[in-house]
Amino acid sequence: MLAPRRQWFRACLRVLDRQNHPRRSFGTSGICCAPKTADFKLEDYPCDVIRNFSIIAHIDHGKSTLADRLLELTGTIPTAEKGKNAQFLDKLKVERERGITVKAQTASMFYDYNGKRHLLNLIDTPGHVDFAWEVSRSMAASQGALLLVDASQGVQAQSISVFHIAKERGLKIIPILNKIDLPAAQPELMAAQMESTFGIDPADIIRISAKTGMGVPEILRAVVERIPPPTGSTEEPLKAFLFDSLYDRYRGVISLVNVQSGILRKGDKIQSCHTRKRYEVTEVGLMHPEEIPTQILYPGQVGYVACNMKVSAEAHIGDTLHRVGAPVDSMPGFKAAKAMVFAGVFPVDTRDFPKLEESIKRLTLTDRSVTIQRESSSALGQGARLGFLGTLHMDVFRQRLEDEYDANIIITAPTVPYKIIDRKGVETMISNPTQFPDVTDSGAGLTVQEPVVHASIIAPEDYFGEISELCYEHRADDLEHKYLDAGSAAPDGSARMMITCVIPLSEIVTDFFDQLKSRTSGYASFDYEDAGYRSSNLSKMVFLLNGKPVDALALIVHESQKDKIGRAWVKKLHKVIPRHLFEVPIQAVVGRKVIARETLSAMRADVTAGLYGGHYERKMKHLDNQKEGKKRMKRVGQVDLPQEAFFDILSKKN
Ligand SMILES: Nc1nc2c(ncn2[C@@H]2O[C@H](COP(=O)(O)OP(=O)(O)OP(=O)(O)O)[C@@H](O)[C@H]2O)c(=O)[nH]1
Q1: Could you tell me which of 236, 277, 287 has the C-alpha nearest to residue 121?
Q2: Where on this chain does GTP bind (predicted)?
Q3: Per CATH, the architecture of 341-414 is what?
């Protein structure tokens, strides 16, 4: 029996839950904190004192560190101890452990400039190419961007891609050279590089150290002086652009919006242009950087809205929200995230599938770019086929499932979406190798196309030979190169090159990036973008254990690589499959042809152990019986492939 006070307390919580009342505020960090109250009035912040901006850069050039300094300088968060890097906006465990940002974060801060208090909305974006979608989303809610370049590394592949996205969106770019405290920093050289690559005037570049805080106050001034304020009037009908969503287990989906015009209030009845569904606003506020309810948002402001959306699909990224009965034209959304890499996810214990499915659904509420489909495998049971933006994204999702939902999972080898075209020209997309048809049968008249990307690699010229070789090994075409620094070589005489090529996506999702890093001693940076499909000589490789295919291990391989891959995988399987009482042939098969084979020898039980003395005939009879038994077992024998063996085979280390 619960004590009466506890019973009463629980009953209260149940009532609050039924009313969908936020009984506690949970940040995305999951840390429980009481909701703060606003000590400011948002009506005091019309458009002319608002600036919305993103921080964009190549991976590790210091975006999150700079975001920390800006939040500290404006008194939004307490100043970190000297030498400590709080990375305040990297809230997820995976972000902190890996030191990368995977989810864009929004934070509003107040800043006094020329005697006027300004409201600055900052969006910290991820740097890795897999999360480029997050970056373009963040930019949709900004009028300006801080483009950070590491003063020791210079312009890198993603610096170029994010610069072009910002330019296309018409954002005002503030160029910044970071890490000038490093002994290896070469600010003059890198400024010249930014000039030749981006056409930026070196006089506009702000030089800072986000780590020590040197030069950072100048950024705040530049944000106010150089970035245009948003436009929008309170007189016009409500128009709110939905650019991101979070999930709170009590309040459901929380949408991040940028109010373009009109006023958004708690209690308003709003409607989605995309789904036409209607909602009542239950809470609205600023991210400061945790949620602070303000009851109202004015034009130009960026904040959050809770309105009883239960499933993530309702918060359509790029949607426009308006007041019920006052329709508006929807704003141009942006390209939907496109899954580039697919993999099957299965529970280690097959009974855990319902729990796993629920965890996946919940996690996709905070990561909207993952696509989900149910899948079942004879070897691994019930699971889900998920689509990711890249392999780092896949790895991060796996880690988040393990960290945040305690999931114990097996994830199959990643595959890309292939196009199969029949004689009549009908196209079918296949993202699961088990569904890939037998294209080796020429009578079927099928052609296969695979996705290719336009890759750019930036590295010192000394590595040109190594990089070209690596690209050709990975079936690259149209290789071109140019010098990046337009004559401004480093003091040691070396110059940097940009190498571009068209390369199959399937080559990149395996080990291309790791090899690029190791062959260039970590100096190369890499970026890619979709370049459509091209015909290719691909077929399905199936692995047979004792003559029976293991569906979860099927792969799509290129003609030129099938022998190498077949041999390597058969060896791997031989290493990890436990021995059985009968001999187990392990074969890699393409079409009807066996490409590679290994035989797992039988485990021999000593059937004569209990026999004493010289009964030779009895001994032989036992051994003959054993032989017969093994033959029979081999005929009908099911080869056990324990989940641990799948783990070993599918883990990257092998
Ligand atoms: N010496 C020095 N180190 C810095 C400076 N700014 C950032 N760093 C370090 O550079 C590393 C990467 O910084 P982050 O702020 O995580 O970089 P990021 O661009 O947010 O990284 P992603 O989000 O993963 O793209 C960290 O180890 C920082 O401590 C700086 O001004 N000087």
Answers
A1: 287
A2: 57-64, 124-128, 178-181
A3: 2-Layer Sandwich (3.30)
What's the whole-number mean pLDDT along residues 213-239?
94
Helix axes 132-140, 157-168, angle to 10 degrees: 30
Looking at per-residue pLDDT, the higher value among 505 and 311 belongs to 505
State which H helix or E strand residue 260 sits in: strand 252-261
Please tell me whether 518 is known to bind a ligand.
no
Residue spans of the domains in the chain: they are 1-32, 42-226, 239-323, 341-414, 420-536, 539-649
Q: How much is the ipTM here?
A: 0.98
> For the residues 66-72, what does the mean pLDDT come to?
91
- Tell me what pLDDT residue 33 has: 33
> How far is the centre of ligand 1, averaged over its atoms, from the C-alpha of 60 (Å)?
5
Express each pLDDT in 421-443 by its tens digit: 988 889 999 988 888 988 877 66
114: pLDDT strictly greater than 80: yes
Kind plus residue range of the DSSP H or E element containing 500: strand 496-504
Among the atoms of ligand 1, which is closest to the Cα of residue 212?
A: 31
The C-alpha atoms of residue 234 and residue 236 are separated, in whole angstroms, by 6
48 is in an annotated binding site: no
CATH dotted code for 420-536: 3.30.70.240
364 C-alpha to center of ligand 1: Å?
28
Determine the residue of 60, 101, 148 to mutate for testing ligand 1's pocket, defined as the one with the most ligand atoms within 8 A of the Cβ atom.
Answer: 60
Average pLDDT, the chain: 81
Instruction: Supply the pLDDT for residue 12.
Output: 35
- The residues lining ligand 1, judged by C-beta closer than 6 Å to any ligand atom, are 57, 59-65, 85, 99-101, 126-127, 178-179, 181-182, 209-211
In this structure, the strands spanning 206-207 and 172-178 are: parallel
- Cis ω for the linkage preceding 289 (within 30 of 0): yes
Q: If you measure from the C-alpha of residue 84 to the centroid of ligand 1, how many angstroms do you get, rounded to a whole number?
A: 12
Q: Which fold has domain 539-649?
A: Alpha-Beta Plaits (3.30.70)
The DSSP 8-state label assigned to residue 189 in this structure reads H
Q: Which among 55, 56, 64, 526 is the best mutation to test ligand 1's pocket, defined by most ligand atoms within 8 Å of the CB? A: 64
CA of 62 to the centre of ligand 1 (A): 3
Kindly state which CATH superfamily the domain 42-226 is placed in. P-loop containing nucleotide triphosphate hydrolases (3.40.50.300)
